[in-house]
Amino acid sequence: MERLLNDKVKDKDSWKGITVIVDHIDGKINPITFELLGKAKELAEKSNSSLYAVFMGHNIKNSSMELLHYGVEEIFIYEDSELKYFRSEPYTSCLEDFINKVKPSVILSASTVNGKVLASRIAARFKTGLAADCTTLDIDESSELLQIRPTYGGSIMAEIITANTRPQIATVKPQIFSMPQRNEIPNGKVTSCNPPALTSGINILEVSKKYKEIGISEAEILVAVGRGVRTQRDMRMAVELAEALGAELAVTRPLTEMGWADTSRQIGVSGKIVKPKLIITLGISGAIQFTIGMNKAEYIIAVNTDEKAPIFKLAHYGIVGDIYEVVPHLIKLIKGQEEV
């Protein structure tokens, strides 16, 4: 594991508390915010720190009350018509104002488009470190945030510590952390903040809603295909298995690079993180670049000709065999065309 340290000295003692940036669209909170709150609460309890949330938008006060069911001690709200739609300059100005007033030691952000923009701009303004797409977060006795993320294409897991500057900033992809349990009784307070002067060089002329499809991130059952498929035409075999199971098709990175599937179906470090109830992997060896994206599935079934393939160490059930022989039998069994 590689450890990276920055070298700019800055007074750290006055920086306290852990903050989650609320990710939302029109006040509807993104589920990853609750996932981050669950992890942030663990870190706060371990370091005896306060847990904050900062919520920026328009007409969001009612939505913010839901956060009080997840252990937030104080929610800082910035409301303004200029914050109705996300624009980097106004949102960053509000977040900068919050940081200057509260001085949190740790800031966690969703690794969404908006979250990445905010995190990177704040890191630049405060000349501090930022670890993107972390897969593990912990905190030590000195309140140093241990940020672990894959690097060099997933071949190395880097442990990053922002040792000498504050705040410590990390972004996390959806479904890395589990959704915490919701407390029936809310606890904490909401603080309304006066936004600073909000200016932007961007004018929003029109907003259209994107049609939401059920993708691999939301699917309960996945059939994932790797290099064991010899030709693009043979992908049809995996598609047929997925259709028989009512599953979504997923792939590894090499298949998207060859143009056999869209990148929206890619699992792994450079793709999607998934947590289905069941995933069947076909011809996938199980390199860490892939398994990071699916190792929290409830059940994993692997089919591979190599009995020593790493995927079998992760799988709950394994079939050592050729997918060209195994998959047709599975399809017939599922369709009731063949007996066990």
Automatic annotation (TrEMBL):
FAD binds at residues 227, 252-253, 266-270, 304, 322-323. Keywords: FAD, Flavoprotein. Binds 1 FAD per dimer. It comes from the Bacteria. InterPro entries: DHS-like_NAD/FAD-binding_dom, ETF_a/b_N, ETF_a/FixB, ETF_alpha_N, ETF_asu_C, Rossmann-like_a/b/a_fold. GO terms for molecular function: electron transfer activity; flavin adenine dinucleotide binding. Its cofactor is FAD. One of its GO terms (biological process) is fatty acid beta-oxidation using acyl-CoA dehydrogenase. Residues 18-204 form the Electron transfer flavoprotein alpha/beta-subunit N-terminal domain. CDD domains: ETF_alpha. The keyword Flavoprotein applies. Pfam families: ETF, ETF_alpha. SMART domains: ETF. Belongs to the ETF alpha-subunit/FixB family. This is Electron transfer flavoprotein alpha subunit apoprotein. It comes from Clostridium amylolyticum.
